[in-house]
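Thread: Nucleoside diphosphate kinase, structure

OP (GT): Posting the sequence first so everyone is looking at the same thing. Length is 162 residues per the record. Can we get the structure tokens written out before standup tomorrow? I want them in the notebook alongside the other entries.
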Amino acid sequence: MLQDHQLHAAELERTFIAIKPDGVQRGLIAEIISRFERKGFKLVAIKIVLPSKEFAEKHYHDLKERPFFNGLCDFLSSGPVVAMVWEGEGVIKYGRKLIGATDPQKSEPGTIRGDLAVVVGRNIIHGSDGPETAKDEIALWFTSSELVSYTSNAELWIYGVN
Ligand code: UDP
Ligand code: MG
């Protein structure tokens, strides 16, 4: 049996991951979900949404001074986005590793962007870059009742019992 503190540790960390309109249109939803799922992270929220431009501007508010901000927000609101929350030990930092560098020309092969994208403006996926942004982004995209806490039987095998 997992001890309480181990279950707690596995559930502590959550990150916000979004498949952007290019990833959805290219039929990469299952491929992307699969990479997080096979790693051993746990899906605790998911929905498909069409964000407004105003909502996209909120999501990317940290980048509002950047020259690409307007085009980026137009793009995020140009089609359906798959919004998700993934949970697990180290999921924020390791989620970014699974995703790869922002510019797919620099993403390593084996990463989502490295394997599946070519240019920075169409890099198919978003992931929170730290604990504070994860908290803010989860709160922006989801209500607390949309976040589902549950125990997966696989956790015993993913985290062990020592
Ligand atoms: N972006 C862009 N041009 C740039 C840098 C970023 O179009 O020169 C886009 C790209 O889609 C990126 C998003 O803006 O994913 C957010 O930028 P950030 O630096 O936060 O990268 P990320 O956290 O997504 O890796
Ligand atoms: Mg970012």
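GT: Both are above now. Quick notes for whoever picks this up: DSSP finds nine helices and four strands in the chain. The first strand starts at residue 14 and ends at 19.
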